[in-house]
Amino acid sequence: MSSTDKTEGTCCVVDLSALRANLRTVRRLVGPGVAVLAVVKADAYGHGDIKTARALCAEGVSRLGVATVAEGARLRKAGIDAAILVLGSLYSDDAAALVRYSLDPVVPNLDLLRHLDAFGAEHGAEIPCHLKLDTGMGRLGLLPDAIEEWLPELDGLKGVRLQGVMSHFARAEEPESQSCRGQLRAFRRMLKRIRAAGHDAPLVHMANSAATMALPEARFDMVRPGGMLYGIFSHPPLAELVPLAPVLTWKTRVLQLKTLPKHSPISYGGTFVTCRESVIATVPVGYADGYKRSLSNKAAVLIRGRRAPVVGRVTMDLTMADVTAIDGVQPGDEVVLLGTQDGETISAEEMAGWADTISYEILTSISKGVPRHYIEAKQKPDGVGGY
Question: Is 77 exposed, middle or buried (0-12, 13-18, 19+ CB in 10 A)?
Fold first, then answer.
């Protein structure tokens, strides 16, 4: 196999056994009385939605969360029959697709509620909806101050069935904050009013990954873990609360080695200049693959179990690393961009710190053009040499 073949040399390895183990950890944490909706939006946080969803369903998950109707339709076309909740982008003209693919919409405003009710009644359908309440996120949802306007709209629904009531935390990683506690109180007040008006829903849910870990009173009937299923944390201190295993490893291989003299500039703009005679490894990954340009001169990669600093600007297709201090590096050697090699680890959280972002963005930014290979623990991905 040629070390210059990028399709073969670069991939993400997704450990489905780690994914299932994380799901079991979530279930132990919340207990048998709380349902788990597994969030697989954004291509399962970059892990690949179909294979990931199938693995989660095989482990007993009965509900999945997606961001759009298109994401839900893709899972249905792949034969996935779990309940699918569309958490984000919805328009009135999505009604037909919701019914066609048996997708459950999250309804954040009166106009959409009215349209779905009329559509369902006209077509002899009863669309199961989850009502979204804006308790302080300031994004989507019905506002507490307008409850007298929207609460009567729940009376007399013919084409819609209220299946759930939900909200979303803005700062769940800070469970004792005034913001978090205030949202929880507002949600409970609104839920009480809805029930007092004679409306009930089988599922009440508010907890994302952070709240699932740090705020037990927010678990209600169901939790919505996303990042924690994949072993990543939006807020690194949360890692101390729950033991989770990273699911994805991002690998490539050394494309070329060259020895450069002292005072040699590296990459565009010469933002790094060698201070000694240096051995520079070029790897076939760049910002077009999702390896962020902001990692330039900040990140490291793993080669032969040791850290090699990224030097010079990350380019569209190529990145350079200084391997002067690592003995025996050869073209074709495995390079771990994200993950563990010989006991040394670069985590998504560490990479996010280098790039001044969060781990979720790191993983969802990895291009779909980078192949995903699915393994069980201790397996090598089929068809990928050198791993």
Answer: exposed
* Domain ranges, residue 288: 6-10+247-375
Domain count, the chain: 2
Q: What is the 8-class DSSP label of residue 133? A: B
The single residue of 91, 158, 258, 268 carrying the catalytic annotation is: 268
What stretch of H or E contains 206?
strand 203-207
Q: What's the CATH number where 97 sits?
A: 3.20.20.10
Q: Would you call 230 a catalytic residue per the annotation?
A: no
Could you report the per-residue pLDDT of 360-382, keeping only the tens digit for each?
999 999 999 999 999 997 555 54
- Confidence band (pLDDT; 50, 70, 90) for 383? very low
- Catalytic one of 6, 41, 132, 251: 41
| Active-site residue flag, 268 | yes
User: pLDDT tens digit string along 103-128?
Assistant: 999 999 999 999 999 999 999 999 99
pTM, 2 dp = 0.92
